[in-house]
Amino acid sequence: MAFSHKPVLLTETMAALAVKPDGLYLDGTAGGGGHSSAILEQLVNGRLICVDQDPDAIAALQERFGADERVRIVQSNFSEITEILSGLTVDAVDGILLDIGVSSHQLDTVDRGFSYHCDAPLDMRMSQSGQTAADLVNTLSYQELVRILFTYGEEKFAKPIARAIERERQNRPIETTVQLAEIVKAAYPAAKRHDKHPARKTFQALRIAVNGELDRLSEGLDKAFDALKVGGRLAVITFHSLEDRLVKQRMASWCTGCTCPKDFPVCVCGKTPSARLVLRKPAEAGAQELEENPRSRSAKLRCCEKIKPLTGSIGQPYEEL
């Protein structure tokens, strides 16, 4: 199965993960296996767990790595890392990679309904199960639509767009990507319609809502850090500010030590850092990658290394798969 997903920031990601030849790694958003393949190239007697929630990705991973005894392939969301590792009788891993967001394959497969450029059913489900984007735009209240568009899309014109959606669905159901894109375009101020596609932020917001992306990311970050061995690394690639802000703040909290007021003569909180930043600033695509893969323009890579377990962390040596 062709699963097109050019791995972004590949060189930077591999450098950040610092793969050990005998280590155990987990790619929580394996997609077509681009990053996974690069990890495997550096493993000798190590192991790799490939995770993805998309059935198309799982089929592609089985075709690509199914015969490799070093690889285990699991269909699940990365927010279930604890459960995944428990099912494989693994206690902790040496490194985890999360490449967050929609894949090129999902964007380019018209009938998945992620893109406003082609007409297709309004779907946007990464797992291909559960509520669709059409379900949301046809059933949510005006207030909830405004909240989703403003919170997840940072859309300044959330109110007129929500009103336009509400008017349209009184006449007929909103069922296709182009239908929704035209509704959004008509709701936009005329002077703003030619900057970027008016539907861009609306589609982002609905996709995030359909897939619960920010909730899954928040939950997945904690579980991923918890699943690392001491000395293990967590690398996360994001594609918009909401994701990056969440990753930045979470890693900063793990790297923070004493939080006592500065005028306290001694520390009474007893807090010490559980991680250190591998990258002080996020890595971004260089000129050559931007030319070869324009979708990398918004990608940011952050990475931290676990230096001690959190309270209640797994943090124990792992069993061989």
Describe this structure in words.
The protein has 321 residues and is α/β, with parallel strands linked by helices. The chain folds into two domains: 10-105 and 213-306, Vaccinia Virus protein VP39 (Rossmann fold); 118-211, Putative methyltransferase TM0872, insert domain (DNA polymerase, domain 1, Orthogonal Bundle). Helices cover 41% and strands 13% of the residues. The chain has 13 helices and seven strands. It has helices spanning 10-17, 34-42, 55-65, 81-87, 104-108, 133-139, 142-153, 158-171, 177-187, 200-211, 213-226, 241-255, 287-292, and strands at 24-27, 47-52, 71-75, 93-99, 228-238, 275-277, 300-306. The chain has a seven-stranded mixed sheet, with helices on both faces. β2, α3 (55-65) and β3 (71-75) form a beta-alpha-beta unit. It is globular and about 60 Å long. It starts with 9 loop residues before the first helix and ends in a 15-residue tail after the last strand. Residues 312-321 have low confidence and may be disordered.
Question: Any chance you could write out the topology, listing elements then pairs?
Answer:
Elements lengths: L9 H8 L6 E4 L6 H9 L4 E6 L2 H11 L5 E5 L5 H7 L5 E7 L4 H5 L24 H7 L2 H12 L4 H14 L5 H11 L12 H12 L1 H14 L1 E11 L2 H15 L19 E3 L9 H6 L7 E7 L15
Parallel strand pairs: 1-2, 1-4, 2-3, 4-5
Antiparallel strand pairs: 5-7, 6-7
